[in-house]
Amino acid sequence: MIGLRLWRTVRIRRRRASGLVLLLACLGMFSITRNSYAEGLAPLKIVAFGTSLTARGGWQPALEAELAACLHRPVKVDSVAKSGETSLWALTQVDRVVAEQPDIILIEFYANDAALQRFVSLAQSRKNIGDILDQLRQRLPQARIIVMAMNPFSGLRGLIRPFVDSYISVHQAEAQKRGLEFVDHRPNWQRLAPDDLAAAIPDGSHPLPDIASRIIAPELVKHIAGNNCGE
């Protein structure tokens, strides 16, 4: 009787062990299949089109890594950007953006337009961004186009941009008039304590790259991926 019970116990344990092995094997196969699938996908191509807030931003690698982890596919972020430039320069660079054939375009060109010494009027800035958006929509009809407002300005760099909010508003209006997307990063920056914000943007204009990565990348991942992150 004892021998029979022992034999039954051994059989049950063997079945459980076999089931566990099978489960682990299935999970392993799922992981391999998912990874192989991700490796077989073409990268999601993003072009960041902007000023020094893009050229010197340093947030692009974080966006690549976080969005790739979220979507389970490769992501490549390239930049067409130049410090000190305005939307007038941007008009001459549309061909470069189109040549990249991006899936997503991130655009910010209000900051230097708003600087008094650049002499780009509000009306001219509005016309320029409208022309840029029209060209991109026409030539890249499948691309998502996202106009952005970046970080706040302070100190001298804020003083020379007294109407920057108006420039942001007209760029936002031109995007929305065309049914395009707009992401405003300023509220996330303004959640920092005043001393932390000053330390994060020491020159009053250009955030430290590591802080910019923590502020900008998650917001863009949330906006681009929606509720798909982690699935």
TrEMBL record:
Gene3D superfamilies: SGNH hydrolase (3.40.50.1110)
CDD domains per the UniProt record, alphabetical: SGNH_hydrolase
Protein name per the record: Acyl-CoA thioesterase
Organism: Rhizobium anhuiense
